[in-house]
Amino acid sequence: MHYRHRIATLEDLPTVVAIYNSTIASREVTADTEPVTVESRLSWFHEHQPERRPLWIIERADDTSEQPEILGWISYSNFYGRPAYSGTAEVSIYIAEAWRGKGIGRYALTEAIAFAPQIKVHTLLGFIFGHNKPSLALFQRFGFDTWANFPRVANLDGIERDLIILGKRVA
């Protein structure tokens, strides 16, 4: 299976939110414990400027329909919000439930790493729960190393969870 990506539009936001919300119940991917709304994600969406911190939609490369199915999304987000950190970005990958385990994560991370220098990003970070073994393995396969371990900083349904920050210098 081959994939492609494009810049997200405001019309994509409901699907982006739906994919994000589909991960909440697992308590493995996000620290949100209740679904988010499209309205609550508007400012987040607008922070993702294509020339600095793009938000990409992933589709099947062979889908030529007028409205191709959105399989997932990739975003670059600012790290810590201070100018000295502008060369560092957090990369997030979210995949629609029916499309998980089909190579989209590998595609997404390959593209994110390759594109980072074009937006003046030299360091990529992944913020991943310590019990999210598939995501940790994906990032490690791409040469990301553990740069920080925050033990028991998240409380998900009464269970304390670790946050691992994986990092990679890409340029």
If you had to describe this structure to a student in words, what would you say it looks like?
This protein is an alpha+beta fold and 171 residues long. The chain has one domain: Gcn5-related N-acetyltransferase (GNAT) (Aminopeptidase), CATH 3.40.630.30. Helices cover 21% and strands 33% of the residues. It contains 4 helices and 7 strands; from the N terminus they run E-H-H-E-E-E-H-E-H-E-E. It has a 7-stranded mixed β-sheet with strand order 1-2-3-4-5-7-6. A hairpin with a 2-residue loop joins strand 6 (145-156) and strand 7 (159-169). The protein is globular, with a radius of gyration of 16 Å. The two termini are 29 Å apart. The model has no long low-confidence stretch (mean pLDDT 97).
Concise synopsis of the structure shown:
By secondary structure, this protein is of the alpha+beta class. The protein is built from four helices and seven strands, in the order E-H-H-E-E-E-H-E-H-E-E.
